[in-house]
From TrEMBL:
It comes from Ewingella americana (strain ATCC 33852 / DSM 4580 / CCUG 14506 / JCM 5911 / LMG 7869 / NCTC 12157 / CDC 1468-78). SUPFAM superfamilies: Tryptophan synthase beta subunit-like PLP-dependent enzymes. Belongs to the ACC deaminase/D-cysteine desulfhydrase family. Pfam families: PALP (PF00291). It is an enzyme of class 4 (lyase). NCBIfam families: ACC_deam_rel. Keywords: Lyase, Pyridoxal phosphate. InterPro entries: ACCD_DCysDesulf, D-Cys_desShydrase, TrpB-like_PALP, TrpB-like_PALP_sf. This is D-cysteine desulfhydrase. The modification N6-(pyridoxal phosphate)lysine is found at K49. Residues 11-317 form the Tryptophan synthase beta chain-like PALP domain. One of its GO terms (molecular function) is D-cysteine desulfhydrase activity. The keyword Lyase applies. Its EC number is 4.4.1.15.
Length: 332
């Protein structure tokens, strides 16, 4: 059996991130609610990808990589944090983004520019068939120049990246123990590429076997995530040599809160952003955490999360995406 500390890691973020009660919101919902502030991981504007990148960048440094290539949507927080991480280690970031060439560079796109990332835009229609080749073409071009390239998959969702969220469970466990508190009944987090959920599941099975974890989909159907996340959790547990076995039924995904599509703000998500901002002074975002909070609120109202449960909401970051959606947010 390995420990998360047995794997090489670079220090990028500020840890532990705060764990704080959302007393007013929790009381209004009839649950005991805490928020894990992974929007405050700090590095490169912060967010959940920093935990994954501590492992992924250690691997890049060890390999002597010069060019880091990754992908995401226009307002990809992941792509922005990869760009920052590449720069920190003297590497060149290349981002192949899903979407047409934008009219203006706002939010994460602006930050991508500040980090000096090379940007390529792929038409959304052909994206899923073209993305692997498009990233490989950048890698081949780097190789032809005598440089060494590494492709980081969408969301940094690899078994190694997921270790970052096994570590997050260890961090939460220490925070709760210091307060003399038991593990939570439920953890709620948004799910986009599935890496965060996979790590949380592996960590929770090891340390908190009674805790339920629910992923609120911001994109695909539940079944797709259940298959993907159980496979990733299996690979992550195998990497750690932890005796766990995973199947799709082990993974709880709610897919009713996506709205029209990934990256398109939903009415319920926008309501949740306003509610949390005005109950707690905490900013969520329209692509991930607003939709996830909409899910949490609805699950409590439907009784799928029981009254008086002890719930931790994982704030995965994303507030740079508030600004490009200003118009949409103000239409309410
Ligand atoms: C990437 C991201 C997520 C989703 O995490 P995955 O590990 O990709 O599932 C959630 N919230 C924010 C703000 C993100 O940037």
């Amino acid at each position: 059996m390995h420990k998360t500390d047995d794997f090489e890691r670079v220090e990028l973020g500020f840890f532990p991130t705060p764990l704080e009660p959302l007393t007013r919101l929790g009381e209004s919902l009839g649950i005991q609610l805490d928020i894990k502030r992974d929007d405050y991981t700090g590095f490169g504007g912060g967010g959940n990808k920093v935990r994954k990148l501590e492992y992924l960048m250690a691997d890049a440094v060890r390999q002597g990589i010069n060019v880091i290539i990754t992908t995401g949507g226009h307002q990809s927080n992941h792509a922005r944090m990869v760009a920052a991480a590449a720069r920190k280690f003297g590497m060149k970031p290349v981002l192949v983004l899903r979407g047409n060439s934008p009219e203006s560079y706002q939010g994460n796109l602006l930050l991508d520019k500040l980090f000096g990332a090379e940007l390529e835009f792929l038409d959304p229609d052909g994206y899923f068939t073209q993305i692997a080749d498009a990233m490989q073409a950048h890698a081949d071009a780097a190789t032809a120049r005598g440089e060494k390239a590494l492709i980081i998959p969408l969301g940094g969702a690899t078994p190694l990246g997921a270790l970052g969220y096994v570590r997050a469970v260890e961090e939460l466990d220490a925070q709760l123990k210091a307060r003399g508190q038991q593990p939570p009944d439920v953890i709620v987090a948004p799910t986009g590429s599935g890496g965060t959920l996979a790590g949380l599941y592996v960590g929770a099975r090891q340390y908190w076997p009674q805790t339920k974890i629910v992923g609120i989909s911001v994109s695909a159907k539940a079944q797709w995530f259940q298959e993907r996340i159980s496979a990733m959790a299996q690979d992550c547990a195998d990497l750690l040599q932890w005796p766990q076995s995973w199947s799709p039924e082990d993974i709880w995904i709610e897919d009713g809160f996506v709205g029209a599509a990934y990256g398109v703000p939903s009415e319920g998500g926008i309501e949740a952003i306003y509610r949390v901002a005005q109950a707690e002074g905490v900013l969520l975002d329209p692509v991930y955490t607003g939709k996830a909070m909409h899910g949490l609120i609805s699950l409590v109202q439907e009784g799928k999360i029981q009254p008086n449960s002890r719930v931790i909401f994982v704030h995965c970051g994303g507030s740079p995406a508030l600004y490009p959606f200003a118009q949409k947010l103000l239409e309410r």
